[in-house]
Amino acid sequence: MVKKTGGSWIEFSHHNIKEGVYYTPVVRTFTDEQWRAKIREMKELGMTYLTLLCSSLCYSDRAEAYFPTDLYPAPADFGCKNPIETLLDEADKQGMKVFLSVGYYGDCYHAYENMISAEVQARAFKAMEQLTALYGHHPSFFGWYLPDEVGINPNYPPEFIHYVNSYAAFAHSLDKTKKMFIAPYGTRKVITDDRYIRDLEALDADFVAYQDEVGVRKSTPDETGAFFEALRKAHDKAGRSALWADVETFTFEGDTYRSPLIAADADRLYRQLSAVSDYVDEILVYSYLGMMNKPGTIAYCGHPDSIAFYNGYKALLDAGKLK
C-alpha cells in the first residue's frame, strides 16, 4: 500500500529569500480568509497534520513574530494580523492537528549556535509560555516542532539530543499532553548501529520525520527505501519515537539552495511515497504551500507548475493509488 501524505509544513514567510521567490511575497499578503481556504485545501486532500515552520523569524539584523508578543514586532506588511490564531481556529474546524514551532529565536541560518545558546533558549521558552497562554485552548494545538536542526552524520550530535530533551522537558512543564516533533536531515548518512539505537532511546521526541532529501538532490527515490528500512528496524528496537517521513515536493529552478523552490511533479512524488510507505507510520510533505495549488483557489501562491502538480496528485488519490 502506498500512503498518501498525511500532512504538510506551513509557513507565513520562507526564511530563505532566494528559495521563496515564487510564494513568500504572496503569502505575506494573504488575508484571514485566504489562509483558511489554503488549510481547507489541504484537508480536502486528506491531510491531518500541519507543522508551522516558524512562529517567529530571526536574522542577524532583524526579526519578526507571528503572534502578539513583546519579543519581536509583528510584520507590518502582513495581510493577516494574527495568523497563528487563524491557523489554529480553522484547524479546529477541520479536525486537524497542529505542531507550533519553537523557532526561530536566534538567527535562522545558525542552527547549531541556536541549539547551544542559553540566550536563544530563554527567548524560545518565553515564546512557548506566551503561545501556550494565547492558544492552549485550541483542540488542534497538538504539539511542538523544533526547527533548529543539525545533520545526522552518522549519529545524532550530543548537543542535538540535549537540545531536544531540554525543550521537551520545558514543554511538558507547560502542558504534559503536548507532543514533540523533529525532522532531522542527513538521512542517507545514518548508521543504525547500537549507538544510534541508544540515541533514539535517549531522545525525548514523540515523532521523528526524517527528510528524504530528494528535493535537495542528495538522494533519489530509488535509494530512500533502503534508508527507511534500516531506520524502521532501529526505531522498533529503541521502542520510543514513532518513525515518520518528511518527503520533499520541491526541486530548484537552478542551483540547490541558491535558487527558487519550484514544484516537482506527481510522478516523482508517487515514487517517493512508494519508496518509504512500507516502513513509516506517517508521511508529511515539505511542502504543500507554494508547490501545489487547487485550480481556482482564492489562495494561489507558487510556481505556475503547482496547479499541474495538484491535479496529478489528486488524480492519484481519485484513482485509489494512495491510501
Features:
323 residues; alpha/beta; eight-stranded parallel β-barrel; 38% helix; globular
In words, what does this structure look like?
- The protein is α/β, with parallel strands linked by helices and about 325 residues long.
- It has a single domain (about 5-320), classed as Alpha-Beta Barrel (TIM Barrel), CATH 3.20.20.80.
- About 40% of the residues lie in helices and about 15% in strands.
- It has helices at about 25, 30-45, 85-95, 110-115, 120-135, 160-175, 195-200, 220-240, 265-275, 305-320; strands spanning about 5-10, 50, 55-60, 65, 95-100, 140-145, 180, 205-210, 240-250, 250, 260-265, 280-285.
- An eight-stranded parallel beta barrel has the order 1-2-5-6-7-8-9-12, surrounded by four helices.
- Helix 9 (about 265-275) crosses helix 10 (about 305-320).
- It is globular and about 50 Å long.
- It starts with 6 loop residues before the first strand and ends in a 5-residue tail after the last helix.
- The model has no long low-confidence stretch (mean pLDDT about 95).
